[in-house]
Amino acid sequence: MERVIVVGGGLAGVRAAEVLRNKGYEGALTLVSAERHRPYDRPPLSKAVLAGDSDDTTVDADWDALRCDLLLGVRATGLRLDVPGRGGVVASTAGDLPFDGLVIATGAVPITLPGGGRQHVLRTVDEARELRSRLTRGARIVIVGAGWIGAEVATTAARKGCAVTVVEAADTPLAGAIGPEVGALTAPWYAEAGVELRTGVKVAAVQDGGLLLAGGTRIEADVVVVGIGVRPGLSWLEGSGLLLERGVVTDGSFRTYQGEEEPGSPRPDVVAVGDCAAWWSGRYGRRLLVEHWDTALNAPEVAAATLLGEDAVYDAAPYFWSEQFGRMVQYAGSHGASERIVRRGDPSGRKWAVAWLTGDRLDAVLTVDRPRDLVQARRVIAAGTPVDPDAIADLDVPVRQAVR
To answer: β-strand 277-281 against 286-288: which pairing, if any?
Structure first.
């Protein structure tokens, strides 16, 4: 390869560029980013940046050493592929960019609600700074969505003295992320922080000065924040011929597919990684779309290796963390097909955990202020080592000692 283009200025794009150089790639390297800021970390946006504890989360990358051309404020608008495996052209607001190797790392975009009223989302540093300026004492802040982002924004807004209401369509917080049974265990945190939580409530529209709920009720607000999830940023790939289904469909090595249906052979010169990639997991026997920092950090090692013709497969168990209502909440694994839930400790206390099991296999774990449990459980999940369910339920037994 002589010319590689990375489309996407988030962590996954930066890491892909770094790994390519670390693995000896000497050709031309260009990173295209729609934002005018140099690439930065996103997790602190809903934490330190929103709280005012930090204002700059720029990724510490040596761009001169990387010999990477940064095209900031440039948006990819289309993709034309040549003969399979022979490169193509990225169409952009700066003109056509030919390549013989392409990394797609365009991340995800927030889902918004209908209505003409102002709604804040939290995906970019500019959005975080703007929202931060609105979190003033006494301001009526209404947050739609009691997921990870909604809880983190509610935490900061309440600490700043705002009058905070969180509206959630499901019956519990985090129902989509960790299921209603475990999500319900976090509901008391809202009242403890002075936040009004209204579950089972659907929003019809965002209006000037508040929300219109289904059924006609209205909630007055000075600021409306929408945190109901994201979708992969794929609009520029429409008509490209790549297989798209919830994300850019890839194999376990992040190679993409060309055509309307998944063919036998993936395309080795175009890889997709990060929030936009729907990659095949042999561990779970299904395709995963993981919108977490840990995947953006580590998966590009495999994507870059694949682009350089090396044999590499990514099959890590997903990992995520959240800081909310004075608690460190961490999750590892995937519980979608698990048979049962085992509580580890008392959820009414400050420190506890929940494990998802299938037989004697540990599928996933959620920990609240128990980082050692999380670290040990990640190792057990990665190794697939059988565990004793009774020992996992005993808070006095270290997770590493619960293996059989």
So the answer is: antiparallel
Q: How many residues does the chain have?
A: 404
The overall pTM is greater than 0.85? yes
Per-residue pLDDT band for 260 (boundaries 50, 70, 90) equals low
- Number of C-beta neighbours around residue 19 at 10 A: 19
For residues 276 and 240, the answer to whether their CB atoms sit within 8 Å is no
Q: Which residues contact 92 (CB under 8 A, 6 or more apart)?
A: 32, 71, 74, 75, 76, 77
Q: What is the mean pLDDT of residues 243-265?
A: 85
CA distance 20 to 159: 43
Q: How many CA atoms lie within 13 A of 88 on its CB side?
A: 22
CA dist., res. 104 & res. 324, Å (int): 32
Between the alpha carbon of residue 298 and those of residues 1, 73, 273, the distances in Å are 23, 26, 10
pLDDT (tens digit per residue) in 41-100: 999 999 999 999 998 899 999 999 999 999 999 999 999 998 666 899 999 999 999 999
Backbone angles phi, psi at 126, to 5 degrees: -65, -40
DSSP three-state, residue 245: strand
Please say whether the beta carbons of 353 and 365 come within 8 A.
yes
- Pairing mode of beta strands 88-92, 76-81: antiparallel
Q: How far apart are CA 344 and CA 342, in angstroms?
A: 6
**Closest alpha carbon to 99 in 299, 255, 270:** 270
